[in-house]
Amino acid sequence: MLLAKSRRENPRQAAAGILARLDVADICEPPEIAGAGFINFRLRPDFLARQFAETAGDPRLGVPLAARPRRILVDFSSPNIAKPMHVGHIRGTILGDALARVARFLGHDVVTDNHVGDWGTQFGKIICGLKHFRDDAALAADPVPELVRLYRKVDGDETLLQASRDELVKLQGGDPENREWWNRCVEWSRHAFEEIYALLGVSFDRWLGESFYNDALRPLVDRLLRSGVAEISEGAACIFFPDDPALREAPCLIRKSDGGYLYATTDLATIEYRVRELNRDLLWYVVGAPQQLHFKQIFAAAAKMGLPAAAIHIPFGSILGENRKLMKTRSGENVPLRDLLMEGIDRARRIVEEKNPDLPEREEIARAIGIGAIKYAELSQYRMTDYIFSWDKMLSFQGNTAPYLQNAYVRIRSIFRKLEAGAQAGAGEFAFAEPAEFALAKKLFQFGETVPQILNDFRPNILANYLYELANAFHAFYEACPVLKSEGAIRRTRLALCDATARVLEKGLGLLGIEVPARM
RNA sequence: GUCCCCGUAGUUCAACGGAUAGAACGGAGGUUUCCUAAACCUUAGAUGUGGGUUCGAUUCCCGCCGGGGACACCA
User: Fold this and answer.
1) Which domain holds residue A128?
2) Of all nucleotides in the shown strands, which has a C1' nearest the CA of A418?
3) Is residue A158 part of a domain?
């Protein structure tokens, strides 16, 4: 029909023209034209069996490599030092990790970078607090909450404003004592972050925080002023975009009138480093939707600087609480991410213990299920949608949830455990007969076309929905087609379907950053 | 005021411009001497509103209504 449109033909006539020149007799039954100009192909069972044998033997499970591999940098997560990670970080962290995994699998050269917020005016207050009010026992036990307490104490006390400013100036000037306090803050926070990333199974190739670019800011601004990319306006160094209607009245400020540098300055230095030093030609910023204007500005600025790379902001919506407001604790604080993850694991553990009390490795299973449920709830829907966080929904273990998919995998593993060692089905032709077998095989073929689609618009939910349909097709097959009790080519076919399903589920969930337990 | 995002069953979410708008939860009904019933099967129920483009619009364009967000010296 697309062809008919471009040629201004009647869609049904175009379809007839295609069929007249098409020879697919060895693949399917004679095609039929239906509706407005659709062509229906009915695959022949022998073709399906041949095709399945090929796909089932493919280590990539039918997923093609990218025709044009890129050198991609994925910027995601980026929490702030001296603050606990909270629910606000979970979407970006999970989404960025999944997109990086998918890009790698498709053959792109991927570098992940955690651009932590380790520099800024808040350190004046924190250092001031550390010098005068610190509780060493609390710092030793759990430093980040103590840093938060100190920041709040100083922040709420107007008599300490000047002292905080002085500490900040000393830090920026390289004062050794303040520098040492700052270093410790970074270390403390990094440990707290690593604990959470370990729970989530997320890792980064680089941790180049904002402070990494400090020395680059002044030369960068000077250079941009000299080259005319930037100009002074009302005392501040700005980049203007007169040719861009969206940015005509939104210049990008890169130096304040007091000489200080800004968020945008660091980000520009970061882009330059990523392109020139890390040799990236495509930058992905997985950052919340509210920052869309900011990225539009710095990308336009980078273009004016002539940096040879494409940069894409991949925005996402918010997580809301049951009251449809931004998710907070009862006292109005951000929900610490660690608490959230531990609660997910606890809930999963209780359910596993109730359902299946004799399992070994219960801790690992609880982690795979609890964390998997949280990740799947995020990744199974469109990233721009604001969504309501609900334990009961994501851990109900019914319907379109991670445990449902994991359960399909577990059932397959169970079959293979029961298959005695010498009793493998052996090589030979496959034989398809039951509708449930056809349906499952056809679903398996679709994996190869589904995975690359994710990157069209950065939508892991396409893969999540596919995996759900695959698990659904498997469960139906499992009900209708006994595997171990069948014989000969039938048994061989069913075992191969099980094996291929397990591998696609494991790979597909793995691309989403979700683990599959062997039992549950 | 300008710009961006979102409006789909009671609820939470899907649908490169394609066929009868898919699921899940919740509702109603059914399935287990059989590989994990965390499952399967059946069933009722929805595109905010008005135009336009198209053979065809949830999707693209314009207006309106409703919700959220961003808009020079914070990050």
Assistant:
1) 122-200
2) B35
3) yes
**Contact at 8 Å (CB) between A31 and A17?**
no
Q: Look up residue A147 and give its two tokens.
A: 């840093």
What's the start-to-end Cα distance of chain A, in Å?
47
Lowest-pLDDT range of A218-222, A355-359, A508-512: A355-359
CA of A409 to C1' of B17 (A): 37
Of A200, A231, A260, which residue sits at a domain end?
A: A200
| Domain count across chain A | 2
Residue A55: CB less than 7 A from any atom in strand B: no
Last residue of a domain, one of A166, A200, A234: A200
Amino acid making up residue A424: Q
Radius of gyration of chain A from its Cα atoms, rounded to whole angstroms: 28
Whole-angstrom distance, CA of residue A28 vs CA of residue A40: 10
- Confidence (pLDDT) at A421: 58
**Domain annotation covers residue A17:** yes
Q: Is position A311 within any domain?
A: no
Alpha helices by DSSP H, A9-89: 11-20, 45-56
- Chain B: nucleotides below 7 Å from protein CB are 3-6, 12-16, 18-20, 23-26, 34-41, 54-56, 68-75
Q: Using the CB atom, is residue A12 less than 7 Å from strand B?
A: no
* Separation in Å: B24 C1' and A128 CA: 52
Q: Would the CA dihedral through A242, A243, A248, A252 be positive or negative?
A: negative
d(CA A188, CA A82): 8
Confirm whether any atom of chain B, the nucleic acid strand, is less than 7 Å from CB of A376. no
Give A307-361 pLDDT, tens digit per residue.
Answer: 999 999 999 998 887 777 777 877 778 888 999 999 999 999 998 998 888 888 8
In a domain, A387, yes or no: no
